[in-house]
Amino acid sequence: MKKSNISQKIGFFVISLCLIATLFFLGTILYFITVRGIRSISWEFLTKPPSGGMTEGGVSPAILGTFYLTIGAILFALPLGLACAIYLTEYTPKNIVVKILRISINNLAGVPSVVFGLFGLAVFVKFFNFGVSILSGSLTLGILILPGIISASQEALTAIPQSLREASLALGASKWQTIRKIVLPSSMPGILTGVILSIGRAAGETAPIIFTAAVFYMHGYPKSIFSEVMALPYHIYGLMTEGTSPEKQTQIAYGCALILMFFVLLLSAIAIYFRQKQRRVQHG
Question: What are the pLDDT digits (tens) for 95-131?
């Protein structure tokens, strides 16, 4: 047997082993959270506010708050990130300054989330005087996921063959028309992939919203974008670290974790649907 064939089989074996390990741990997490959390799920749990010192009632304000913060972050970060990616990919010359800028954006994606929380506290809560609110939390989360959206959008735009741009320009289209009619529709599946990853991070972050948006308990539901809000990640943290009924609170925390997991999967599924729809349109 040739040495190359042996190396190929070893490579396939290692890849298969990594895949099996990944699926095993993923399945274990899903099973563990589902089994522990399903006991708490009921109509009352999903539609009622908490009561009895967080040991009774439901978590509907936290579900609604997570939805507001996640959607607000995406609405802020997606247009800004896409515009930045278009400018860096389509309009800037290929020089050292642009390369440094791209490296800086990639490095920004690795900054700890608590740093973004402190930034949001200093800028949005204090400087702009938005206070601890949905608006401050959404903007902070939007900045948190912005580098990821920029990077994913850049990769998607770069993957479009240059010949498509040249053909469009040769037919008399302007540069902006080429980007809007040819480049963006073709790169949309890759851009939506970045959005899918960003949804999960925005919905699950705790550190940024502690400083800018979330409270452990509030009466009723938020009335405006300047209202404080409950959120599932912070609610889970609070239930596991405070209170006088650890057993009941732990059970509720697992229920919140299951809801949060389902929430992220639902939003991701919606984004995946639009991505697949866009791909079908491209392929006729």
Answer: 787 788 888 888 888 888 899 999 999 999 999 999 9
Is residue 183 within 8 Å of residue 157, measured between CB atoms? yes
Portion of the chain with pLDDT greater than 70, in percent: 95
179, 87 in Cβ contact below 8 A?
A: no
Tokens representing 163 are 């010949």
Contact between residue 45 and residue 174 where contact means Cβ atoms under 8 Å apart: no
**Is the pTM of the predicted complex or chain greater than 0.85?**
yes
271-63-28 Cα angle (round to 5): 70
Give CA–CA dist 155/191, Å, rounded.
Answer: 8
Strand partners, 214: 229
Helices (H), the chain: 3-37, 43-47, 60-86, 96-108, 113-120, 134-158, 162-170, 175-178, 184-204, 207-212, 232-241, 246-282
Superfamily of domain 38-282: MetI-like (1.10.3720.10)
Q: What is the CA radius of gyration of the chain?
A: 23
Q: Give the pLDDT score at 2.
A: 62
All structural domains of the chain with their residue ranges: 38-282
